[in-house]
Write a structure and sequence with these properties.
It is a single chain. The protein is of the alpha+beta class. Helices cover about 25% and strands about 35% of the residues. It has helices at about 10-20, 65-75, 100-105, 115-125, 140-150; strands spanning about 30-35, 40-50, 55-60, 75-85, 90-100, 160-175, 185-190, 205-210. It has a six-stranded antiparallel β-barrel with strand order 1-2-3-6-5-4, surrounded by four helices. A hairpin with a 4-residue loop joins strand 2 and strand 3 (about 55-60). Helix 4 (about 115-125) crosses helix 5 (about 140-150). It binds flavin mononucleotide. Flavin mononucleotide (FMN) binds near residues 48 and 60.
């Protein structure tokens, strides 16, 4: 029988990420993030989650990007983690928002240097906007990346931001075997964060069709 999942779901997700890391899986904290624009057109991409706590999941992005523009117009998002080697998947549904600039000021120096430089390339090129169909000259990206490497000190570009996904539904899926079906445990809450006595009390948990 799979482990009985109870209590608050975000610590369980945090533990599953840690277990994927301990198992040596590549990029254990990346998720596919789906957003939709004001007209409902969906867009998905991979992002790296850098923190999971009772409020939600933090990730970073330059602005403007499709994801930040979508979230500004429509905060409803969905995301998926999948660790095939562990037979585990987590599906999140919730809302996303940008966090205050102080959070990003503190986070930027902790990011790998290559990502810090990429953020500057975005900063320099994004305001001009990509051409129709998103075309940007690759040599210009490289040039802005190299120019950022010469910056001293390498401070946060103002467009580099931190976002938080606050889920109201989290599904934990576990693969079955030849003899057992998969399982899916669903956590939902309808209260606004902070009104429950403790993080675990606001969540309702049920087994659902996998
Ligand atoms: C493994 C991996 C991790 C990534 N992590 C991030 C990330 O944390 N933040 C981000 O903005 N883009 C990240 N990207 C790039 C995005 O997938 C995407 O190409 C970019 O953010 C532009 O997406 P958008 O125009 O839909 O907003 C990552 C890509 C990969 C393959």
């Amino acid at each position: 029988m799979p482990e009985n999942l109870t209590g608050a779901p975000l610590p369980i997700l945090d533990r599953w990420v840690a277990e994927a890391e301990a198992a040596g899986l590549p990029l254990p904290s990346t998720m596919t993030l789906a957003t939709a624009d004001a007209a409902g057109a969906p867009h998905a991409r991979t992002v790296l989650v850098t923190q999971i706590d009772h409020q939600g999941l933090r990730f970073h992005s330059s602005t403007p990007t499709t994801k930040t523009e979508d979230i500004a117009a429509n905060p409803r998002v969905s995301a998926v983690f999948h660790w095939p080697a562990l037979g585990r998947q987590v599906i999140l549904t919730g809302t996303a928002r940008e966090l205050p600039t102080e959070v990003s000021d503190a986070a930027y120096p902790t990011r790998p240097r290559q990502l810090q430089l990429v953020a500057w390339a975005y900063e320099d090129l994004a305001p001009q906007g990509p051409g129709t169909d998103g075309e940007v000259d690759q040599t210009r990206i490289r040039e802005r990346f190299d120019a950022a490497a010469a910056r001293e000190p390498l401070t946060r570009p103002t467009g580099w931001t931190t976002l938080e996904l606050s889920p109201w539904r989290i599904d934990f899926w576990r693969a079955g075997t030849e003899d057992t079906p998969p399982t899916k445990t669903r956590f939902t809450h309808s209260e606004t964060a902070g009104t429950a006595a403790s993080p675990s009390e606001k969540w309702r948990v049920v087994d659902t069709l996998p």
